[in-house]
Amino acid sequence: MDKQLFSDHLASISKRYDAILDDCGFDTLNVFSGAPSVQFLDDNYYPFRVNPQFKALVPVTDNPHSWVIYRRGQKPKLLFYRPVDFWHYVPPAPQTFWSDEYDIELLSKPDEAKAFLSGENAAFIGETSKMEGWDIGQRNPQHLIDRLHWARAYKTPYEFACLREANRIAVGAHKAAEEAFRSGASEFEINLAYMNAAGQGENQMPYGNIVGLNEHGAILHYTHLSTQRLSENERRSFLIDAGADCHGYCADITRSYAYSDGEFADLITAMHEKEQKLVAGLIPGTSYVELHRDCHHKIGQLLQQFGVIKTSPESAVESGLTGTFMPHGLGHFLGLQVHDVGGHQTTPEGGTTPPPAEFPFLRTTRTIEENQVFTIEPGLYFIHSLLSELKESQLADEVNWDKVEKLRPYGGVRIEDNLIVHKDRVENMTRDCY
Ligand code: GLY
Ligand code: MN
Ligand code: MN
User: By residue range, what is the domain housing residue 335?
Assistant: First the structure.
């Protein structure tokens, strides 16, 4: 990664932190990376997941017991944990594109941090369970966290570069996964092919990979990874939702494939077209909620075009019928977290704007603005439990159940890209890598 790009990034987020700390009445921010948690009645640890507010300040994702001490107007201090430990890997002292920007102190024991930390006019952000008795300032003040969460929606050029690189890695891995699917691999084997091509293991991935063959494509967060290989005539469809990491930034990409030509393949092609129309709707100053509503109209059009419903798209949206086939939201903010924070926030100071009652799972209700990064991920699924409910409802007569039965064995389709909203165009980081 380019040193200057990072230096500019830190300069611009420092301005942001200075103003936010000032507004919130603090001089110092103490951010803890986290401490590993031991599994219940066991001596093994859960995989370490870094505090996102720590990686927002320094690109370190795999080192517990570390701190960033950020004082307004000063070079940030990084307390970097380097124990003497013959059981575990100990990372080297940082010497990379970002390290000149920090005043770095090495800690050989977690408690050595206390000598550098002060609670005076300070706020602390991190998990508090291991911090009993530490003088670290006001713990996780909500008014400060709200301000930081709001600001994270606006990405810098360095953050764009990380997100583009995460997309490049993930798209290469998606291609390897498609090849594995076509050659008859099991879900488990496809996932191995994906991780191998990405060069990242499951603990580095931003979320559990969703790798579903046939009906499994209808389970929205299917992470079971069956080891069963399917014979050629059993292979119908494949849905994969999998990302990658770059310096703590996430990709979140979904592709759907049909094994053979036919109606389901046509549905996938039609979904790609609708998805790209929705991507073009990411216009600064417009409403993500309205784009989600537009998505439901497009799902209604597909349902009508493929003969799944007998009513008009308008009536299917109005009655809630499209919700059976696409129960999730159109997409979400993307960044240091796969579902990046602040999507329901009303103002920089806080408050919550929930989604409309008919779209309870929509994660973004903020106005679309320049420099925000989103996913767009329309889907259409044949979900057993929701279809059973529909069959018992007043809307049952509006559905061609024969067509549902024909398409049900294919599970579902979702197409998900990662987008940057620029002033006068949308950058599709995902498609730019194909
Ligand atoms: N991979 C989770 C999501 O698409 O939101
Ligand atoms: Mn996804
Ligand atoms: Mn997503």
Answer: 157-433
Q: Is the CB of 252 under 6 A from ligand 1?
A: yes
Query: Which of 220, 340, 416 should be mutated for ligand 1, with most atoms under 8 A from CB?
Result: 416
d(C-alpha 433, C-alpha 27), whole Å? 43
Is the distance from CB of 91 to CB of 40 less than 8 angstroms? no
Q: Which of 151, 172, 200 is the last residue of a domain?
A: 151
Ligand closest to the CA atom of residue 254: 2
Residue at which a domain ends, from 117, 136, 151: 151
Task: For residues 237 and 263, state if they share a domain.
Answer: yes
Q: How confident is the model at residue 215 (pLDDT cuts 50, 70, 90)?
A: very high
Each residue of 255-284: pLDDT tens digit? 999 999 999 999 999 999 999 999 999 999
Give Cβ neighbours of residue 339 (< 8 Å, ≥ 6 apart): 332, 333, 363
Question: Is residue 146 located within the same domain as residue 180?
Answer: no
Centroid of ligand 1 to alpha carbon of 332 (angstroms): 9
Domain count, the chain: 2
**What distance in angstroms lies between residue 169's CA and the mean position of ligand 1's atoms?**
17
Provide the β-strand partners of residue 71.
28
Question: What does the pLDDT look like over 340-394, one tens digit per residue?
Answer: 999 999 999 999 999 999 999 999 999 999 999 999 999 999 999 999 999 999 9
